[in-house]
Specification:
2 copies of one chain form a homodimer.
Chain A (H helix, E strand, L loop, with lengths): L7 H12 L4 H7 L4 E6 L4 E3 L7 E7 L2 E6 L5 E7 L4 E2 L12 E4 L3 E7 H10 L1 H27 L2 H19 L6 E3 L4 H8 L3 H13 L3 E4 L2 E4 L2 H8 L15
Antiparallel strand pairs in A: 1-8, 2-7, 3-6, 3-8, 4-5, 4-7, 9-11, 10-11
Helix pairs in contact in A: 1-4, 3-4, 5-6, 5-7, 5-8, 6-7
Chain A binds a DNA duplex (30 and 30 nucleotides) through helix 7.
Amino acid sequence: MAQHFANPLEALCENLERYEYLEPKARAALEHVRFEFRVLPVAAAAVTDGTAVSTCSLLLSGMVYRSKTVSNGERQILAVHVPGELFDLQNLLIDIADHDVRMLTEAKLAIFSRKALIDIAFQFPSIGIALWRESLIEQSIYREWLTNIGRRDALARVAHLICEFCCRLEHTQYGIGHGFELPMSQEQIGDCVGLTSVHVNRMLKRLETMHLIARTRRSIQIADWHALQDVGDFSPDYLHHSMLKAA
Amino acid sequence: MAQHFANPLEALCENLERYEYLEPKARAALEHVRFEFRVLPVAAAAVTDGTAVSTCSLLLSGMVYRSKTVSNGERQILAVHVPGELFDLQNLLIDIADHDVRMLTEAKLAIFSRKALIDIAFQFPSIGIALWRESLIEQSIYREWLTNIGRRDALARVAHLICEFCCRLEHTQYGIGHGFELPMSQEQIGDCVGLTSVHVNRMLKRLETMHLIARTRRSIQIADWHALQDVGDFSPDYLHHSMLKAA
DNA sequence: CGGTCGTTTGATTACGATCAAACGAAGTGG
DNA sequence: CCACTTCGTTTGATCGTAATCAAACGACCG
C-alpha cells in the first residue's frame, strides 16, 4: 500500500475517488495542485487549538489524532485518522481551529492550501462532492463515538473502538487480515472512549480471556470477529463503506 | 422572530447569509427553489435510521433532535436543532440515514429536495460554502459534546449544555435575555449528556442551590452567567459565532 | 376525577476512578 | 555491555460518582 502514496497527488486522487467518481478533466486538474511534503515526529502538532489554519493535509503514512483538553487538564481524543485520509477538512471553511491535531506516530503528510482545494472543489463539482462527503462521513463517526461514550459500558466501548479500527484499516489499506497495528497507548485508548488507562487495561485483558482478541505489544489480532462485534454493539453502517469505492 | 419565518425561502436565505455573503444573483436563484411546507407533531420522525433520505429540511419553528439507539435500548441524543437551522445537511450527500431525527416539540419545516440544494450549491459557490460551513460548525458541536460526555463530571455536563443552548438561541433568535425555554424532559437532557434523568434532576437542583440558574417548569433563567460558564467549563469558541453574521 | 407522564427525593448498589506498587520494555550514558 | 532512567503495562485495594431501585408528588389531559 505504502508505495501507492509515493506520489501524493496520486494519493489525493485515490482518496477523492473513493468518495465520488472523478471525470478525466477533474483528475487532470488535480495533477496541478501544489502541495508541500512534510514528515512530522510523534506528538508533533499539525494544528493547534485557537490558531488560524490555512491548510488541509493528506495523511500519507502514520496516524494522527484530534483532541481537546478540558479545564482540569484531561484530554479527549475526538478522532483518529489512518493513512489515505484527508484531515482538516473542517478547516477548509473555518478560520480558527477549535481543537488540536497531533501525530500518533511519525507521519508523512502532503499539505495543501485550503484555498486551492476550495477553488478546485467548486470548479469541479465531483471534487467538491468527494471532499464534502468525506467530511460528512467523518461527522457520522463523531456521532457513533458520542453514542459509544454516552451509552455503552466500558467493555463495549473498547470492543467497539477495536472493531471500528479494523473496518477502517481494512477499507483504506489492503486486507489487514485478522490483525493490525494499533499505535496507541492504553492511556490514549482511554482518551478515545472516556475511560482511564487502568480500566482500559482491564477491559483489554477481559476481551483476551474471553478469546475475542489476542495481543502482542501494540498489535491486535481478532480472534472472534462476530463475538467482538456483538460485545461492542458494533455495526459498520455508520462508516458508509457500502456507498464508497473500496481501496 | 417567528414572523421572519413566515416565508420559508426568506428564512433559507437568512440562514445561508449567516454563514456566507450571498451575491444578488445567488439570492435571486434561491427564490425559485421548490419546497414543501409541513407541520410535524411532538415525537414524529422526520428521518429514520437505516432508511434512504432525499430531502433536507429547514426548521422554521420548534425544535428537533437527532438520536441513536444502542442494543440495550438506551438512547443517545446527538444534537438538538433550534429554529432557523438547516438540519439533515449530512443527508445531502449520504444516501442512507445512520440515525433518527425526531421532533422535540411540534415543529414547522420547509422541506427541500437534496438534489435541488446540491445543484444550486455548485452553481453558486457562495451558497455551497454557506451550506458546507454550516455543516462543519455542526461537526464542531459534535466534538464539543464528545468532550463534554467523555471528560467532564455530571454537574459540568449539565451546565455546559445549558450554556450552549443559551448561546445558540441568542444567536439565531433575537436576544433571549436571561432566560429561555428548554423544551426537554430531564430524561432527554440525560440522553444528551450521558446521564440518567434522576441524576440530571440532582444536578439541576444543585445548579439552582448554587444560584447559577433558576427554573420554572421548562424554562431556565440564567442567574449567574459567568459562574455557570465556569462550572460548565464552557467557552463559546467552538460555535464559531464570531466568524458568522449575527441574526 | 382518574390516569399518565415527568419530577423529586431517599436508599442502596455498582461501575469505573483513584491510589499505590511492581514489572517489563525501550532508550541513554557511563 | 550493563546500570539506570523513563514510559507504559499490569495488578491489587479502596473510594466515590452516578446508576439503580423505589416511592411519593405534581402537572397536564381526556
